[in-house]
Amino acid sequence: MSEPVVAAVDVLAALPYAAYLGLEWFADDVLRLPFRGDLVGNYRIGALHGGVVAAALECAARGLLLEQGASAATTVDFTVDYLRPALSRDLYLRATAVRIGRAVATVRVEAWQADAARPVAAGHGNFQLIAE
Amino acid sequence: MLYRYLESSAEHRRDYITRIPHSAALGMDMVEVAAGRCVLRLPFQQSLADGHGGLAGGAVSALLDNAGGVAVFCSLERATDFSTLSLRVEFITAPAAGRDVFARVECLRLEGRQAHIRGVADCGDAEQPGPPFATVSGVFFLKPHSQPLHDLETLGNV
User: Which range is the signal sequence, renumbered to this chain (chain A) (predicted)?
Assistant: First the structure.
């Protein structure tokens, strides 16, 4: 029954760090972070900064909540498991709502690069929903 | 211990950060290091501000991740490559509008290939911590057969 109340494009505009990172919609429920040199953390292997991966996962989670009609969501906690090195290429993210309650939402996010079956990072977070 | 390398010169501290492209892009700076701990600063900038006027949570996560790495580095006896295995950030509240953010992180223990870190983020200043608005805990994993970090292999005994 819950129709998205915010256009998908506007959702990312509401997240300044997502805009800074260059996060964009790739498909219906998939976000893409195009690779950029200033997102690198390990200059020797050209791996994405761990903080960039964490931020992208968190933005994807908050983006999902905004898209689902939450007027605002603040992060209560966010946990990231780094599964494989995130190399010098685009990163794809898909967020899944575990539960969206009245005051709190719990969201899972997976991030991958070449192969969706080989995720590079997994995130899990709780968000406080702000009533309008 | 390796922290002496960073402690010994502002140039070493600056180099450590500028070699990490994203940290350099965000303008992070290493305020203080000691054995197994560090203080990093993320200067406020409007382009990284969230809706409420403080720095965005994602930028704070990046700062805390980086500070965790520096704290691990400051616990090492010799140069070893490592990476973040897991990172958990809890936000008590949002960072204050228009204020720099400080990450104060320590490496609790380095045992075998694991290094465990804990820390806080606040909007105090370099000398005086403010009330923490976020906490961090994480695990870093050391790579046993890796190249040494940076060019520290040339430093000899630091």
Answer: none
